[in-house]
């Protein structure tokens, strides 16, 4: 799904998150494990204020595991509980419930001490488009969708999904807009396929990808394309990859736009391995 973000859309999205916030105990902020910073919208802090939050690094199956561990530690040092999951794997999602219980443990203890019966935790998912919100909701839902009758503030079209006894999830996720005022952030979102909008042309994306890989994952570049570092000017590297893969036009010249597409596709399809594009070091 491609969403063009205009001020009106942003205001509406913000309003929806704000309204649903009243119904829940905790917000699940879904982020892309390959882009733990670039796939967040810092505005969420203003929107959710003091509401408890769990950070969920989704698509962890596609990210660099070492970096994922460091990011979890980074977020926890900042006071946010974080878990890494793959939403395509229902079993691993059990960790989400457990983590939510941890975040709310104190509050639930206080309730228990007051003699209140513990109830299921109510949660909502928020995140930028394409981060995996629907996938996660569907996997968690299985068949346990409960019709909401008379819950205050819940519109008829909204439902709570029961996830075991411990968790109830609002079936409509909150959509945040990606923030790509910073060119690098936009490039990272685009090269991973986290956003589908053509905010950059393929050649620029491929060049961005190659430069990124040379800096952070030179070995992968070597293994995939048999190159030691990039050429200056970069066209030499394109020539090399084009010849290696035999990407030529009918006259025999290298088809550079096809080479660009190949590089970007290789990155998105994990042919260069599991990659993380935000490095903790750059944010400390
Ligand atoms: P939404 O826009 O946030 O609701 O995102 P979707 O749920 O539609 O997911 C976008 C794409 O990411 C789909 O192609 C999903 O199959 C894929 N996806 C979602 N979660 C994961 C995950 O944990 N791992 C992988 N590899 N793909 C995922």
From TrEMBL:
SUPFAM superfamilies for this protein: P-loop containing nucleoside triphosphate hydrolases
Superkingdom of the source species: Bacteria
InterPro entries, alphabetically? G_CP_dom (IPR030378), GTP-bd (IPR006073), GTP-bd_ortho_bundle_sf (IPR023179), GTP-bd_ribosome_bgen (IPR019991), GTPase_MTG1 (IPR016478), P-loop_NTPase (IPR027417)
Q: What is its main location?
A: cytoplasm
Q: Which PROSITE patterns match?
A: G_CP
- The yes or no answer to whether the keyword ATP-binding is present is no
Q: Which UniProt keywords apply?
A: Cytoplasm, GTP-binding, Hydrolase, Nucleotide-binding, Ribosome biogenesis, RNA-binding
A Pfam family matched in the record: MMR_HSR1
Instruction: Give the subcellular location.
Output: Cytoplasm
Which residues take part in binding GTP? 58-61, 86-87, 130-135, 174
- Indicate the segments forming the CP-type G domain, all copies: 14-178
> Per the UniProt record, which residue ranges are transmembrane?
none
Gene Ontology terms: cellular component: cytoplasm
Q: State the Gene Ontology terms under molecular function.
A: GTP binding; GTPase activity; RNA binding
GO biological process: what's one of them?
A: translation
Q: What does this protein do?
A: Required for a late step of 50S ribosomal subunit assembly. Has GTPase activity.
Q: Which NCBIfam families does the annotation name? A: GTPase_YlqF
Sequence similarity: Belongs to the TRAFAC class YlqF/YawG GTPase family. MTG1 subfamily.
Name the PANTHER family for this protein.
MITOCHONDRIAL RIBOSOME-ASSOCIATED GTPASE 1
Q: What is this protein called?
A: Ribosome biogenesis GTPase A
Which organism encodes this protein? Candidatus Kurthia intestinigallinarum
